[in-house]
Design brief:
heterodimer, A: alpha/beta, Rossmann fold, 2 domains, 7-stranded parallel β-sheet, 5-stranded parallel β-sheet, 28% helix, B: Rossmann fold, 9-stranded mixed β-sheet, two-stranded antiparallel ribbon, ETF_b (chain B), ETF_beta_N (chain B), ETF_a/b_N (chain B), transport (chain B), electron transfer activity (chain B)
Chain lengths: 313, 249
């Protein structure tokens, strides 16, 4: 039994999500190798080699993998993946895009978004926006898996000493081309990995009012999220969406402001360690999951919160 | 160009999901069913391509029991020209669904396949990508903008941290994300007209696909409920509790 973990990386840094995927692989057991594919990824491969529990890092440094195009990446993973019993990636945008192609190429099922490992072939995953939790068993010889990284505590980033081998194979399917990328520039932590998240909902009334949340986020070093209602209303872009169809987050502290708490939103943040809800509707469903609920007008409460936090943080 | 749109019948978005007491699945008896929201966006995008004069024919396809014809009629009422139902009462998993859609693609030879990025029942997010692989097509997943340019389609995709635009050779598979468009409602005259549009029924066997589930669901449970929390009276009390009780700031 052996697992190939497909690494996530961003701007030359190994993403924390990969450490959680390695943790999920550890729960399965067997040797763990990590595949780092991209352009100029030598530094990422070195970082992956230091992660706890890694046996070997395979580095595929090639233009064809420079923009995570699923058509090319899936060919590489299917080739390198031969001989492994488990192929695992995070359920981030690259893993979700690429792994089903790998599974189809190998004629096996994929188990998406696992939040628990029961044995080498049995996994726990959310269905119906997390309103039900399914335990599924795979009968395929190779298990292709994406991992809900917030469900697994990351392995240590330092301490390992795996070898790094370079992989020469260059797969360009010739089907797709990268055109451009527009990434939100921000000094704030990544939403999916932040320790503190403050999110706004329809109650924010407009995009400008999210500046109030930014001020609080600055005090706490928090990431800023939003409910689908706020995204649908055009207040903020979709990459801020927390929920079934957006980001899944599980910070130590989640502050929901003007969010009613639709089930689709709860699916995205219900695993947070502490949840605070600020809403003027005392019957809002968000209060049923909040550890601390404050029934108040957010336009009074949020500026006050900023002031009070400044006194203690 | 011809556009194939795949749609799925699922539990209605607004229905509260209940797990069966015997833990074998989710209770779908007497529950309102509807077209998967991401599939509605897919149909809308196809109709807009036709309105722009880019698409000439829209074929809607679904896989499911006889009643899933309701969702095909909805697609026809929204603007699809004809429909194909792959009729089966079996539990069709993503890989088998992709194989059936591949067989339909082989027969229909569409220039573009549009489908939802995931269905809100199994939340798998797999079938579009699997179909693209099986059909040897490129894919534009989680699309927020689709622009056909000659023999290529430019797709802007929602990725972690922002947007990415790719150019794909046609034929291609596009899977829809929320911001791609806002689906219209079917008008009453169009609902009436849809009843007369052609709807063909085939079986998985006609398509040469054996339904062979690879994943066995051992049990389905309610999620662990959170411990109920408390209401605080003021912002001061909230911050005090966060600092001294929860110790998270």
């Amino acid at each position: 039994m052996s697992t190939l973990v497909i690494a996530d990386h961003n701007k030359g840094e190994l993403a924390g999500s990969t450490l959680s995927v390695i943790a999920a692989a550890k729960a399965i057991g067997g040797d763990i190798d990590v595949l780092v594919a991209g352009k100029d990824i030598g530094g990422v491969a070195e970082q992956a080699a230091k992660a706890d529990g890694v046996n070997k890092v395979l580095a595929a440094d090639n233009d064809a993998y420079g923009h995570d195009l699923a058509e090319n990446l899936s060919l590489l993973i299917a080739e390198i993946g031969k001989g492994y019993s488990h192929l695992m990636a995070s359920a981030g945008s690259v893993g979700k895009d690429t792994m089903p192609r790998v599974a189809a190429m190998l004629d096996v099922a994929q188990v998406s978004d696992i939040m628990g490992v029961q044995s080498e072939d049995t996994f726990v995953r959310p269905i119906y926006a997390g309103n039900a939790i399914a335990t599924v068993q795979s009968s395929d010889s190779v298990k292709v898996i994406t991992v809900r990284t917030t469900s697994f505590d990351p392995v240590a980033a330092e301490g390992g000493s795996a070898s790094v081998e370079s992989v020469d194979s260059a797969h360009d399917a010739g089907l797709s081309e990268f055109v451009s990328e527009e990434l939100a520039e921000s000094d704030r932590p990544d939403l999916a990995a932040a320790d503190v998240v403050i999110s706004g909902g329809r109650g924010m009334q407009n995009g400008d009012n999210f500046k109030m949340l930014e001020s609080v986020a600055d005090v706490l070093g928090a990431a800023i999220g939003a409910s689908r209602a706020a995204v649908d209303a055009g207040f903020v872009p979709n990459d801020m969406q927390v929920g079934q169809t957006g980001k899944i987050v599980a910070p130590n502290l989640y502050i929901a402001v003007g969010i009613s708490g639709a089930i689709q939103h709860l699916a995205g943040m219900g695993d947070s360690k502490f949840i605070v809800a600020i809403n003027k509707d005392e019957d809002a469903p968000i209060f049923q999951v909040a550890d601390y609920g404050l029934v108040a007008d957010l336009f009074d409460a949020v500026p006050q919160l900023e002031e009070e936090l400044k006194k203690v943080v | 160009m011809k556009v194939l749109v795949a749609v799925k019948r699922v539990i209605d978005y607004n229905v509260k999901v209940r797990v069966k007491p015997d833990n074998t699945g989710v209770d779908l008896s007497n529950v309102k069913m509807a077209m998967n929201p991401f599939c509605e966006i897919a149909v809308e995008e196809a109709v807009r391509l036709k309105e722009k004069g880019v698409a000439t024919e829209i074929v809607a396809v679904t896989i499911g029991p006889k009643v899933s014809q309701e969702q095909l009629r909805t697609a026809l009422a929204l603007g699809a020209d004809r429909a194909i139902q792959v009729e089966t009462d079996e539990d069709v998993q993503s890989l088998d669904a992709a194989k059936m859609l591949k067989a339909v693609v082989d027969k229909e030879e569409p220039n573009l396949v549009i489908m939802g990025k995931q269905s809100i029942d199994t939340d798998n997010n797999q079938t579009g990508q699997m179909l693209a692989q099986l059909a040897g097509m490129p894919q534009g997943t989680f699309a927020s903008e689709v622009e056909v340019e000659g023999e290529k389609v430019k797709v802007t995709r929602e990725i972690d941290g922002g947007l990415m635009t790719v150019s794909l050779n046609l034929p291609a598979v596009v899977t829809t994300d929320l911001r791609l468009n806002e689906p219209r409602y079917a008008s009453l005259p169009n609902i009436m007209k849809a009843k007369k549009k052609p709807l063909e029924t085939v079986s998985p066997a006609d398509l040469g696909v054996d339904v062979a589930p690879r994943l066995k669901t051992l049990k389905v449970e309610e999620p662990q409920p959170r411990q109920p929390g408390i209401k605080v009276e003021s912002v001061e009390e909230l911050v005090d509790k966060l600092k001294n009780e929860a110790k998270v700031i």
